[in-house]
Specification:
The complex is a heterodimer.
Chain A: H1 3-24, H2 28-48, H3 52-76, H4 89-112, H5 114-117, H6 131-139, H7 143-164
Helix pairs in contact in A: 1-2, 2-3
Chain B: H1 2-20, H2 24-46, H3 64-83, H4 85-90, H5 95-112, H6 118-136, H7 143-174, H8 195-211, H9 220-227, H10 230-258, H11 265-285, H12 290-311, H13 314-338, H14 352-355, H15 357-371, H16 377-392, H17 397-422, H18 436-454, H19 457-464
Helix pairs in contact in B: 1-2, 1-5, 2-3, 2-5, 3-5, 3-10, 3-13, 5-6, 6-7, 6-10, 7-8, 7-9, 8-10, 9-10, 9-12, 10-12, 10-13, 11-12, 11-17, 12-13, 12-16, 12-17, 13-15, 13-16, 13-18, 15-17, 15-18, 16-18
Classes of the chains: A mainly alpha, B mainly alpha.
Chain lengths: 168, 465
Amino acid sequence: MDITTIVFWFLSALALFSAIMVITRKNPIFSVLWLIIVFFAISGHYLLLNAQFLAVVNIIVYAGAIMVLFLFVLMMMNLENLPVVNKNIWMKFLGVISGGLLLCILVSTSKSAADMNLKTIIMKEGNIGLIENLGKVLFTKYALPFEISSILFLSAMVGAVVIGKKES
Amino acid sequence: MNALILSAVWGIILMFCSILVKNKKAIGYIAAFGLLTILIGNIAETYGTQITHYNIYPMLLLDRFGLFFNTIAILSVFIFVLLSLIEIRKTGKYEPEFYTLIFFVICGITILTSYQNLLMLFLGIEILSIPLYILTGSDKKNLKSNEASLKYFLMGAFSTGIMLLGIALIYGGTGTFNLQPGTHSVVGTYHGISFLEITGLIILMCAMAFKASVAPFHFWAPDVYDGAPTPVTSFMATIVKVTAFLAFFKLCEVRVTDTLTAVNWKMIFAVMIVATLFIGNITAIFQQSVKRMLAYSSIAQAGFMMYAIFSLNDVAKEGLLYYAMAYSLATIGLFATMSKIKDYSFEGYNGLAKKQPTLAATNAIFLLSLSGIPLTAGFFAKYYMLASVIKTGSYTWLVIVGVCFATISIYYYFRLIQAMYFKTGNPDTIDHEITPFFKNMLIVVAVFIVLLGAFPQLLLNWFYF
């Protein structure tokens, strides 16, 4: 068992454990803190898969910016006065069934996917995930989606102004 | 590509109109003019004239089917804008932004009708839905509109996440984002098809069914359609839904046919069709509000459009185009009339035929078309859908189910006709908004529906020439 395998299993276990902690905590602030750990573990996975740039962006954008924003919002809201969430036992039951079915499908897929065993991942080497390659692909093969996503952001910006503007 | 570029440009122009144009009444007409140019640009592209010759092939492929659908969709938006000029002005305070978002939705439509890459499918669906989340909440002072917007946004964002999961799994299974899966060369797979691809497809289809409000992913639709401002509901329930179906069809046409050896897709789609028809039609019967009834009726109509995705043949292709036209026009007309009536319940329509005979007569034609009575476009739309199933040669019982539910739908559509013609009352209409132009537009739409019903080949001949 070499060091990458150990790191992989450690990161996987950490990600799964913290993800479970995110959804079981009563206090949302703890949930957010655990979520930051999930992001760090996933960034570790990206590093293992030669996606250095993605790992850095994941930490800066998600763990850094978005989660801090989350925490600010949570701290500004008065959590004491939040209405108690309706906990209907049947809803829980149905939720467990549908979630379990999805889990069943995913587990059986990954278990019976023989083609996955034949694929190996290049680890520790290669510069595939460097920003230079990303830029090259983005401005050649994926130029059209890259340009079109600007329309998406523009419409989101128009929407933010429409929704956020104070009405006299 | 013409329509995509022009609609993005017009969206930006309309954005600047909010500071540059002082005359508020002009904005609607500017938008209508913009739609006209997009329509002309798209028709020009159908016959080979392009603005740019940018190489878009691996991402988009502009075929006749997609371009023709663009024409139908843009024409429907044009009619929608002309019919709801006054309502859009009244909804919220941001009329130019409203049109801007509609133009961006058209961008999404043009992407979805021509995508060749799952990445473009994702972008198209997002460009289609994000403006809609905002449009749904554009009536900011109205609590119901806010609630609908938030609900739609949360559910839509969640379904987008599911969609991305599906696309990621498909990528894992086939190693490509292309719509065309290429060759299945991996050994040790089930019927030569990767399990990851199948799981990804199922998950992706759940997300697409959500966008098209097909049961069992329809739960958001009645609340959102009911809460949104009426012009937005009209836009969402018709053009956007039909486009989602087209994208769904394009996806299934390639991927379902490709994986048919491994998955019994026909059975899955048959179950979805029956569930959608059942829920849409049976729930619509019990509604007291016309707006909510139309929301459920749009789910029921989605069930009929699912027939095209079930059979995936040439008749289904033609039928989907025809259905898009017939369903959109009739529903846009109904919603436009509804926004002129203050009371949305069935009682609010009592005696409309006495007070506004034009509105009542055109509405009757729209309702007849939706229920599929011969000599209206709705009849042939349903006919093509059922014929496509018969052509596949299996699952003929689906046709019988479809006919039964079409019969049930007559009950709630005719209830509105009954309220308009055979009940006495004084409907509370907004008279000063029912201009001669509005009436004439309604008559034009109604005549168009009857023409399409009498000569169904009018539309489809144009598709082939």
